[in-house]
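Colleagues,

Please find the record for the two-part complex below.
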Amino acid sequence: MSSDEVRARVRVVSPRTSAARTRVTSIASEIDDQTRLGEVYIVSLMRSQLRLAVGVLAVLAVTLGGLPLLFHLVPQIGRIELFGVPLPWLLLSVFAFAEIIVLGWLYVRQAEKNEDDFSDLLEGR
Amino acid sequence: MNPAATIAAIVAVSIASLAVGAFGLRFSRTVSDFYVASRGVGPVLNASAISGEYLSAASFLGVAGLILARGVDMLWLPVGWTAGYLLLLVFVAAPLRRSGAYTLPDFAALRTESQTARRVASALVVAIGLLYLIPQFQGAGLTLRTLTGAPSWVGQVAVAVVVCLAVLPGGMRSVTLVQAFHYWLKLLALLTPVFFLLVALASRDGADAVGTLGAVDVTDWVEPLGGDHALYLTYSLVLATFLGAMGLPHVVVRFYTNPDGRAARRTTLVVLALLSGFYLLPILYGVLGRLLAFDLVASGRTDSVVLELPSRVFDGVLGQALTALVGAGAFAAFLSTSTGLVVSVAGVLSQDLLRSGPGHRHGIRTFRLATVIAVAVGVVLTFLSVNVPVAHAVELAFAVAASTFCPLLVLGIWWRGLTAVGAVAGLVVGGGLSGSAVLATTFGVDRGDWLGVIISQPAAVTVPTTFATMVLGSLLTRGRRPEHVAQTMVRLHAPEHLVLNRGPFHPERTTVHRTEPTARRG
């Protein structure tokens, strides 16, 4: 019996619950209080959203933004035809618009996911 | 050509716009209704309104004319104007909505906590708004002259009067419905004639088609980068259009009508689809014009290709009906962009320059006075600048927006290091440089050297300069960051449903909000 008493006296439960509770309730107030920890959370959200935005910009810059340079360096492209239409005309109309819409759609999906992750973190889910 | 049908169609569009506006009037009762329709507009309606407002005289008439005259290089205009919305989506849309500001000066005040930044932003909104208003009024004069033979001032004054009648009673709410209606009208007005034209072209005999193909089979027109300094000019145009859209005052004010940041993103995605669908049509008109109305290039009247094509191919009732439809669509384009510009310029004027007392009765009266002032100044400036080419004025407005508000928004939203001093320095330098280029072009400074090339298409120089000025100015004043910048960042980026301290900013109390002490825990 004495070994049971010794085991019951070990204070393991109490500190663990209090530690867990502060963590769940405090992220929002850490942000409100502008502590270093709160700043880490909001900066991580901004970073993930900015990385996503810069990624979209980079794809756009390399593909659409690269076209004038490509036309300049490889003028023969202007003479290639696809479905009877010169390639630059297709690239600068149907393809460009399709790329813009697809990039926008991918961006909205990922940006909402980043926000959901942040909300889950704050609401302790 | 019998102008009766066209005049009837234009009058019908004006009356329909006013009627749709009057329907919205029943909902608009408070000051925030006037400015932002109380933020209760759904994504598809709002996206239609944004697109309707954005597709101006340049999109409806100018793009087709430029493609007819100069070919593939001009495809960058519709592509750039759409890509501008993609960049607005990824960098600005949700944070701007979450900022809770009504106007660009509101945003400047919220982020920099400086009344000087607010005033500089106000002046720039008025300048860009008026610069963009001039080509709209000019386009209206040109349309009525082409279709009915009336002198230019008739069309200009007619648009000005209808804009006043549309904005004065209902403010933003009525304008939202009118703009949405205008998008679909413009789409229909270009789509219907194009359908008839393509059918007519397909059924023509072979000999006829071969005879006209000669005008299309020209290297300069088909292949990209024609003319001197083509690479610089193309990149400068790309930069101005890609980055300018987010800095146009009448575009940004629309984002406040979304219920929250997430809706602002989804609205913008719908806008991308609506713009892409629309912009295929002016491109088709440019190519069809090359086939069917090549003489317009020689006579220098390429801007009227959209208006003249239907009556060149079809006689009788069909030709008249299609011409009337196109005329109505063109008038819708001038009306929607001008109302949007007038609402945002008047909003800034009444909030920052004419504000005389508290209470919403007072606010509405000032807003109406500001509306009349904005329209009157726009008309006078249009009369004064008869000789400025329409399409180029629009490109320059984009260049000024890209060189001022784009850096303010992007750095303000994503970099907490931006200070009031840096922001003001950037706005002044960017606005000054691009504004000087506008004046030089307006007064016909025509130089053959590199400076002349830069002046005609300034964005590739002025945009990086503005970014550099804002960053440098902010780094030099590192110790003077805005007091509440941490809370502002929470406000801009955290989803709305989270309960967080977002700072005390409220746009209807802009002059006092930053001096209030903030209660803080801890």
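Residues 319 and 443 of chain B are 40 Å apart (CA to CA).

Comments are welcome before we finalize the supplementary table.
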